[in-house]
Amino acid sequence: MSDEDLEIDLDDLERRMNGALASLKTEFASLRTGRASASMLEPIMVEAYGQRTPINQVGTVNVPESRMVTINVWDKSMVGAVEKAIRESGLGINPQLNGTIIMLPIPELNEERRRELTKVAAQYAEQARISVRNVRRDGMDQLKKAKAAGMSEDDNKIWSDEVQSLTDAAIVNVDNALELKQEEIMQV
């Protein structure tokens, strides 16, 4: 067995951990901070044509002013499904219908709603940490297989430390992103 078979792909592990962080940032973009943003609707999926579809694939999302988001739904029959998806999303926005256009007025955030949003942000961050730890577990499983295939104890320890170091760095990045988002949400 060659040395290449006994090594693990740290670049792949790091890429997957960074993917968890990128996903977290996308979810954070959906948390509103009192300002209208088209990205706040990105994680919302609509039940359309027998499958779950992103909102931006059933209509045009616009931000005509700082406290308003509009969605011009292309198919009249989808307006109800889009409205339902928004109501069930947990964003705390009450959609208003105007034909095929759904208007989402963004209300001022009160203290209680800000605290709720920081809790949602913390849940998103915990999901990202879980993803990072799952990637770490995959890396450690690869190390176990390599050890069984003949990797030395010393090499195994070195690789294990590398995987742990990647994990620690990714968790710190998640925690930093959470802290920044919570500050942004609580800012009046």
UniProtKB/TrEMBL annotation:
TM helices/strands, residue ranges: none
InterPro entries attached to this UniProt entry: Ribosome_recyc_fac, Ribosome_recyc_fac_dom, RRF_sf
Keyword field contains Protein biosynthesis: yes
Main localization (coarse): cytoplasm
Domain of life, per lineage: Bacteria
CDD domains (alphabetical): RRF (cd00520)
Compartment list: Cytoplasm
The Ribosome recycling factor domain, residue ranges: 24-186
SUPFAM superfamilies found in the cross-reference section: Ribosome recycling factor, RRF
UniProt keyword list: Cytoplasm, Protein biosynthesis
PANTHER family, alphabetized: MITOCHONDRIAL RIBOSOME RECYCLING FACTOR PSEUDO 1, RIBOSOME RECYCLING FACTOR
Similarity comment: Belongs to the RRF family.
Biological function: Responsible for the release of ribosomes from messenger RNA at the termination of protein biosynthesis. May increase the efficiency of translation by recycling ribosomes from one round of translation to another.
Protein name: Ribosome-recycling factor
Organism: Pseudohalocynthiibacter aestuariivivens
